Every structure is written in structure tokens, then in C-alpha cells.
Amino acid sequence: MSLGLDSEFAAELEGKVGVVNDVLAGILADARWIGPEVRESIRYALEGPGKRVRAAIVLWCCEVVGGRANRDAEIAAAAIEMVHTYSLIHDDLPAMDDDDMRRGRATCHKRFGEATAILVGDALVTLAFELLAKEVEPAAVAVRLIAELAEAAGPAGMVAGQMVDLKAANGDVSEEQLEHIHINKTVKMFRCAAVMGGVCGGGEEEQLERLGRYGLKIGLGFQIADDILDVCGTSEQLGKTSGKDAKQGKATYPAVVGMAKSKELAQRRAEEAVAALEPFGERGDVLRRLATALLNRTR
Amino acid sequence: MSLGLDSEFAAELEGKVGVVNDVLAGILADARWIGPEVRESIRYALEGPGKRVRAAIVLWCCEVVGGRANRDAEIAAAAIEMVHTYSLIHDDLPAMDDDDMRRGRATCHKRFGEATAILVGDALVTLAFELLAKEVEPAAVAVRLIAELAEAAGPAGMVAGQMVDLKAANGDVSEEQLEHIHINKTVKMFRCAAVMGGVCGGGEEEQLERLGRYGLKIGLGFQIADDILDVCGTSEQLGKTSGKDAKQGKATYPAVVGMAKSKELAQRRAEEAVAALEPFGERGDVLRRLATALLNRTR
After folding, report:
1. Can you name the CATH fold of B7-296?
2. What's the pLDDT tens digit per position in B76-102?
């Protein structure tokens, strides 16, 4: 599960990955109301060794404002991981990016067929909202989390990014347009993770605004690093097909601004993310280390 | 827009269809945060001349317990229509039922391509939850509506029904198994529409239970009538390819129990739906007429 990180931070991330995996496994074990066939394909999708970065951000941001992660944050972390997983399943479909490999295993449609993969994605996004509505208390917190997640994932967020991304393939894209695609496709979900964590921890609006800014900047850095990795990483390291973006003529930072400037931009975004954490003092340390770590990751 | 109904009831339904269409159009007009490209494909999907039966049930059930439909009920009606529309878009995909025609027009993937159709479906289901979270007050009502809708649409509801339906194609299916498929694929959304309406109208739990029972029974009757229409209707009447179920070897009531028993069962379910309305007295009249009307519809 290492991302190629320093060992102290790697252990902290590992701890959160363990929590998220346990929460997801617990949800599936409890969900006897979901029939065995549907459950098996959902489990396959969720058990892939994902990095769980968005979910870890939820848990850490809850701790930063509230002291310790609570059950609401665990549910929010599971929900964002479900929405992220659904987006990967649909993104990998033949009609979309047409990928055979994800998280080091066969993609969902390769394993179960296209129809099931479409439905497993549909099941996961719906289940995420069901969990938030049923498991989070009080109702005002549940509604806030649902609104944040739906806004980040929906037609003015992730879905919009995927749609523009499809059309941008093989086209000329400016640096500005590329940032716009990334903000919708990836960054809003990072921002959402940070804000959801803060909401679960009972953060003040000013703190949530800070966390949102952190999520935005770290998301931008993460996506630039992802583009760089697609060029430099091996498929084995990535757990998905490497060099795929370039082959499909996808708009990426190295393709649009060159490798040197891509690395410089990723560094700058990480620094801006760290700057947003200033008021949190020492409690923000783990989020600061995450910002650096995401630049140096190898997968 | 006529379903082949008696003219008085047809006018009442027409009124509700008008309300739902106006609410949907208003949501899209206000939703400037959704980019123009995404909005155009969402609008195409939502503007198809759907029967809006589920949405009308939300509005009527709100009136039955609360006197008149309110803004919450309008939002709930729009949300359920969005979720229903998303399910049709994904259901029509080549990897699923592979249909070219829906609501009398080209299906979403025929018009915009498969990738966009997948994403428009994803956008609609997410937008439905975003609307409920942002537009319904108080939070406790919003959470209840979201929980009901997600449960009906998700992995223990509509998605499960679609998944089993895929596997049941061309197979031997008992009457009991067929009812199980229909309950998940169609009926839970009807039940959900009735309960959501009741919740928006401030109904007591006992009233919601009655409305849920009505929704369940009317949903069963509706789906049997749908199966009968697939055999007897023309594509022009249906706005979708007729005889499709039989051609694909899908499990349908006429195929499993024969036409005569199908008609008898549909009639019985309508009577059971009407019986559930007993405590509502005259206020339940329009829901009673709906039960009869759905049996006699020609599309």
C-alpha cells in the first residue's frame, strides 16, 4: 500500500486506510438487505486496493477541527470512497476510457461484464447517499454532507469534468482549460472530502473555508502529480495502464505545459495547501505531510 | 399526452404533468452552475414526454394528507422523475436493453453517444439528491426523503431489480420470481413516490404506511399492465419499441402466467390499491381513479 512515502507518514496513512477498509467491510457485512449477487460485485469494486486518499482526508480534517474522528466521519469517508469508486467504474467502461486494469486488478466490466459494471456504479453512488441519510446524526449534518457530496460529484462537478474531458481528448487545450477540467473532474471531490471532514468534526464556517481551500490546492497538486505519474510510472506501480492518457491524446499537464513546469506547479499547489492550514497550528501537521507526500508518491 | 383515460381524470393528470414539467424546467433554468453542454443533454433527457406517473403520485399523496401540494412535494416529484429518467437512460444503453427509441424520440445514447448517456444518467441521479438536500426544509424532512429515494432506487431496490432482470432474460422464471423482479425494478419506486408525497404533506406514520401500501399495489398493477402493453401496444402508442421484451426473451407476466391471468392479476392489484385508501375517504378519490386508469391505459 506504500505510495513511496516517508515511513512515519506512511504509517499514519496506513492507519486511516485500515479504518476506511474496516468501515466499508462492516457496511457490506451489515447490508443483508442487499441481495448476494449485487453485494458480491459491490464488494469486488470496493475491495480493490485503492489509495483511499479522499477518505483519509475526511478523517484527518475531522480530527483537525474536532480532536478525533467520529462515526459520522467514518460514514462520510465511506460515502466519498463509494462515489469515487463508482466514478472509476464508469470511467473505465469501453464507451468511456476503455480500461482493463484498475487498482492492480481487472476492471469491473472485465470481471462482471458491462451491464453489471454500469449497475454497480449506479448502486454505489446511490448507496453513498442512503448511508449519509440513514447513519449520520443530526439531520442538519446529514443534509450538509449530502449537499456537499452531490454538488462535488454531480453535473456541476465531477460529471461535468468527465464530460469536458471526453471532448478535450485529442484536442488543443490551454493551461487554463486544463485546470478547469481538473477542478471539476478531481479537485472538487478533494475539496468536498476536506469540508465533509470539517463538518463531521463540528468545525466553524471559517475553519471549513480553510479546509476547503486546502482540499482545493491539494487536489490540484494531486492531479498534476497524477499526470506526471502517467508519463513516468509503470503500470505495475500505478495498478492501472500507464501512458494511457498520452496514448489517448488526453489533455495532461506534461503535454500542455511541459514536464519541468508541471513539477513546479505541483510544488506550488502543495505550498498553497500548506499555507491554508496556518490557523490550525500543530494539529494541521498530518495534512501538511500529506501535501508533500502526494508530490513524491510513486503511485 | 393521453394515456387513453377518461377525460375527467385525464385532465387531472394533465394538470400534474404540467406542474412537474414546469418544476423541471425551472430547476434547469435556475441551474446556471451547470455548464451549457451538460445542461443541454440533461434537458433533452428530462424534456422527453414522459408519463410523469411517479411524480404525479408524489403530488397527489401530498394533497391526500396535507390538503395541497407544496414546494417540498414539487421538489420530491422532480427528484423522483430525475431518478426514473436516469434509470431509463442507463437501461436503454447497448450493454443493457439496447434500445433506440424512448418517449417517442431517440434514446439518449442514440442522440449524444454512449459516453454522454452514461454521464447524463450519473448527473441526474446525483442532482436528484442535491436538490432534495438543498431545497427541502426542514432538514429532518429532507433526510427522510433522501433515505426513501435512495433505498428504493439503490442496491436493494431498482438497481437490484435491473440486475436480476438482466440475468432472468431468456431463463425460466416462476410467477414468484417475476413478482420479486418487478417489486425491485418498478414497484419500490412507486411505493417511494407515495410515501415521499405523504412525508411532504406532513402525514402521520400510519397514513404513510397506508400510502406505501397503495404505492406497492399500484406499482404491481402498473408493471403487469406494462407487460401486457408490450405485447398488445404499437411502438407509436408506447413511444418505445413494442414487443421488445418478448423478443429479448424477458420475463413478463403474459409470458409466465398467460394473458388472461395477467389481466386478472392487474385488476386485483388495482383493487388492493383502492382498498388501502379506505381511511382517506373522498380525499383519496383521485388516487382511486389513477388505479383504474393505469389498467386501461394504452401507453
Report:
1. Farnesyl Diphosphate Synthase (1.10.600)
2. 999 999 999 999 999 999 999 999 998
